[in-house]
Amino acid sequence: MDSSFIMEEAPGTEPERQLAFIHAMREIVRVRCDELGRPLTCRIHTFGCQMNARDSEKLLGILEQMGYQPTEDDDADFVLYNTCTVRDNANQKVYGHLGSVKSRKRKHPDMIVALCGCMMQEPEVVERIRKSYSFVDIVFGTHNIYRLAELLYRRMTGSEQMVIDIWDKARDIVEELPVERKYAFKSGVNIMFGCDNFCSYCIVPYVRGRECSRRPEDILSEIRRLAADGVIEVMLLGQNVNSYGKNLDISIDFATLLREVDQIEGIRRIRFMTSHPKDLSDDLIRAMQDCAKVCRHLHLPLQSGSSQVLKRMNRRYTKEQYLDLVEKLRRELPGISLTTDIIVGFPGETEEDFQETLDVVRKVRYDSAFTFIYSKRTGTPAAAMEDQVPDDVIQDRFNRLLDEIRQISAEVCGRDEGTVQEVLVENVNDHQEGYLTGRLSNNLLVHFPGDSSLVGNIVSVSLTKSMGFYYMGELAGAPIAP
Ligand code: 5AD
Ligand code: SF4
């Protein structure tokens, strides 16, 4: 099929346009497979957060529809890097990979190399790729991942050496394209895209764009479809799920959405991420009390325990407000597991500020915490702040914080030892033969002897021994019926 033909003939509306390109690509892939006498393979490397993981499932869905077979081999015919730019080390990893892709592509000249995701929303990055990585075939961003088939078609049938398609903001939310889930029984579900919070250290609002909620009917029908396809656990995804619905023309908030998801037959567990402490409403706490399927776990990023640092971070809560919120959560949702994100070494952070962070960690007693060394992101307000903290001071604080967190979480995580809990069996344990790995409602893992036929079921497990960050257990009954 000739490129100008499809470009002109392709429908102007989505998803019809992409379905037409998927169809056209399927023919190209089929012919190529016949020539080679083998299937064409694809490999996606995903960096960063759950949003990127979900985007990769969508990208894989499109690739499979076009006829590509997924592989773990880096010598695939189509290699895609779905990038993250939240901290500089994620960027460096991508450049590292590109170095080795270059030599692989020399041996395998038909290989198509594509880059997408948050890093590509930064003009300096795209410029560097254009200049120094000319073997890259396709570059696209965060707002147009649904156009993969069209971009690949352009690269494979047109004359462009490198197809670059970056949008500075979202144009539309395209529903109903194929998705290939990593797990049969659980799935992420985007409820909103982007972020309007502009925390002063964070690049996400610049690369993911303005906050934009999906319509509730689209979210609910996606979850109903997932349930019909065997999914029993959903993770509702957004940078700031607590402000869900604010930009919609109807009146709906996150608590209401949660109640509606709770009604969907077949879904047995609901998780969500991420919650911004400033927007966590009493209505949401009530919804969590009322909805039995909502897991007893909240990821509540602290970032810093110092009210002064929080102010400069533009987090819009103080240490005291955060601690009050935690107290309320513990009172209203007994046994809830709390996890968090903390940044060490934000510009101007003093030892006293850092002590405030340690104080919050000791008071809240998180199940676990992700700790990050502050990374200067060009274009964010914090990058221009004076008093950047020296590296050795940051490293010392980071180590002290990690020690504190490890010690506390080992104590906290053992609190359910000796009880029987419901566990969703996620996979066969790779390290111990005859063992399965499952997840508790509070997100901790448990390993226990069992048969692979139980994967994807909810079972009762007796938590015989706490190992600090996970449990060892024994099956305590047959799979629990819905
Ligand atoms: N430096 C270090 N950590 C950061 N995060 C976001 N931006 C930065 C940065 N510039 C962390 C925050 C956020 C998590 C996803 O990444 O803790 O919650
Ligand atoms: Fe970044 Fe803050 Fe938005 Fe989270 S809430 S994505 S830390 S700007």
Q: Give the CA-based shape.
A: globular
How much is the average pLDDT?
94
* Distance linking N and C termini: 50 Å
- Quote the beta fraction: 15-25%
User: What helical percentage do the residues reach?
Assistant: 25-40%
List the helices and strands and how they pair.
Layout: H1 3-9, H2 16-36, E1 41-46, H3 50-66, E2 69-70, E3 78-83, H4 88-107, E4 112-117, H5 123-132, E5 138-140, H6 148-157, E6 163-165, E7 186-190, E8 192-193, H7 204-207, E9 212-213, H8 216-228, E10 233-237, H9 254-262, E11 269-273, H10 282-290, E12 297-299, H11 307-312, H12 319-332, E13 337-344, H13 351-364, E14 368-373, H14 391-413, E15 420-428, E16 435-440, E17 445-449, E18 458-466, E19 470-475
Parallel strand pairs: 1-2, 1-3, 3-4, 4-5, 5-6, 7-10, 10-11, 12-13, 13-14, 17-19
Antiparallel strand pairs: 8-9, 15-16, 15-18, 16-17, 18-19
Helix pairs in contact: 2-3, 2-6, 9-10, 12-13, 13-14
The structure holds 5'-deoxyadenosine and iron/sulfur cluster.
Short description:
The protein is of the alpha/beta class and 482 residues long. 37% of the residues lie in helices and 20% in strands. The protein is built from 14 helices and 19 strands.
Description:
The structure is a single chain. This protein is of the alpha/beta class and 482 residues long. 37% of the residues lie in helices and 20% in strands. It contains 14 helices and 19 strands. A six-stranded parallel beta sheet has the order 2-1-3-4-5-6, sandwiched between helices. A five-stranded mixed barrel has the order 15-16-17-19-18. The protein has a three-stranded parallel beta sheet with strand order 7-10-11, with helices on both faces. The longest helix has 23 residues. The structure holds 5'-deoxyadenosine and iron/sulfur cluster. The site of 5'-deoxyadenosine (5AD) has 12 residues, from strand 13.
